[in-house]
Design brief:
Length: 231
């Protein structure tokens, strides 16, 4: 199990605009006021971040045809059919969790309470972009470590995305001591702070690479990555 702190986050202005509803060409047409507010909230957000990440690699004992992964620690994971295919050839699962903390979230609530809606919406979008950047960074660290050990990695899987049941979130929290980075899970499997992300990555030597990678590839630390070979 490893904890990573003091990560310098990078905020993409275009991504922040996109999360406010200004997609692609619309981002270029965002009015001057929205652009100014977005840039101000990006600038002011950096002192609100408390980025931390934690991950743990667990050996797989076996995967049955019904989508149950039995792990070495006596725990298990239930996956769907698409994940079952993508995880073929894996020997380990890397369970990860990251958060930017709750200061930004608190500031968003404060702005909404003051009826400063444009600022609140922009800052919330900044938090989403920051959270994704942090998650991608931690994933790239996992990929780099796997590469150094001559392993390959799959893409990442998030509980609640696609058709993977969000209840599997509890399995990640049983494996990772999330409280060490200040994250907890509610009874409805939602994470607090809200700007937190969890995921699972497959690791193995006989993985069939079927994807061109994911967002973490944009900031990946690994050289000669198997996903980059397809670009």
């Amino acid at each position: 199990m490893k904890i990573i702190k003091n990560i310098k986050l990078k905020i993409d202005e275009e991504e922040v605009l996109r999360y406010q509803g200004y997609h692609h060409y619309k981002a270029k047409k965002a009015n001057e006021m929205i652009m100014q507010i977005t840039r101000e909230e990006i600038e002011q957000s950096y002192h609100l971040f408390e980025p931390q990440g934690i991950y743990s690699k667990v050996m797989i004992k076996n995967i049955n045809s019904e989508g149950r992964i039995n792990l070495e620690n006596g725990l298990h994971l239930e996956i769907n059919n698409s994940m079952l295919n993508l995880l073929r050839g894996t020997s380990y699962l890397a369970f990860g969790l990251s958060t930017i903390g709750n200061h930004l979230e608190g500031k968003v609530v404060e702005l909404f309470a003051k009826n400063e809606y444009p600022k609140a919406i922009a800052l919330d979008a900044v938090g989403t972009v920051a959270s994704k950047f942090l998650s991608n960074y931690i994933q790239s660290v996992i990929c780099q470590e796997a590469k150094e050990q001559k392993f390959q990695t799959t893409g990442y899987f998030n509980p609640g995305s696609g058709d993977w049941d969000i209840s599997q979130q509890k399995n990640i929290f049983e494996i990772i001591p999330a409280d060490e980075i200040g994250v907890r899970l509610t009874e409805s499997y939602m994470m607090i702070p809200k700007k937190s992300l969890s995921w699972v990555i497959g690791i193995g030597k006989e993985i069939i690479i079927t994807s061109k990678g994911n967002d973490s590839c944009k900031i990946c630390l690994a050289e000669n990555c198997q996903f980059r070979k397809t670009f």
